[in-house]
Amino acid sequence: MNILLIFFALPIAVIIISIALQKILKNPLLVAAIIFAIFLIVTFVVDDLNFLVAAIVYAIISFITAFLTYLICRFLKEQCRENINSCCNNNIMTANTNQNNNGDQLVVTNCNENNNNNSFNYQVTSTDGVTARISIVPNNTSNNGCGCNRR
Q: What is d(CA 56, CA 35) in angstroms, rounded to the nearest whole number?
């Protein structure tokens, strides 16, 4: 088999396929097992025992790639969650009412994302003790307004 294929093309293909499978399956061990199974079949079809060593190396590359993809996705998801929480924890907002424009302060006591209709539900209490629940639907459903993509 061509050296360029073994040392360049197949590892790049394994990395790309591992990233795609990790995003679909969300399990690095399963991704590595699938890649190993594919190359094990190819080893017996080609009938070359040297390719068995390459299959093991490709499975290790696949596992490392899938695990790194898992860690990156988990880190980004955690950053997104922290960004949403910090946006919700800015719990004092000013509301100018149509009646008196006095700039009453509203204190957000409960902030959660409603995944069904892409809205955010807030429980707010004004300085005079009136409590209300409001729902805010962002204009752009791919961004929650706090600088974090929802998907």
A: 9
Alpha carbon of residue 73 to chain centroid: 5
Residue 76 lies in a domain: yes
Per the structure, the complete domain to which residue 54 belongs is given by: 3-84
Place of tokens 């706090």: 146
13 domain residue, yes or no: yes
CB 29 within 8 A of CB 63: yes
Neighbour tally for 28: CB within 10 Å? 21
pLDDT at 29: 96
98 and 114 part of one domain: yes
pLDDT tens for 116-128 read: 555 566 666 666 6
User: Which CB contacts under 8 angstroms, 24+ apart, belong to 70-73?
Assistant: 70/22, 70/26, 70/28, 73/23
pLDDT tens-digit series, residues 38-83: 999 999 998 888 889 999 999 999 999 999 999 999 999 988 887 7
CA 4 to chain centre: 34
Taking each continuous run of H as one helix and of E as one strand, the counts in the chain are 4, 4
What backbone torsions phi and psi does residue 31 show, to the nearest 5 degrees?
Answer: -60, -45
Domain count, the chain: 2
Among residues 53, 79, 64, the alpha carbon closest in space to that of 144 is found at: 79
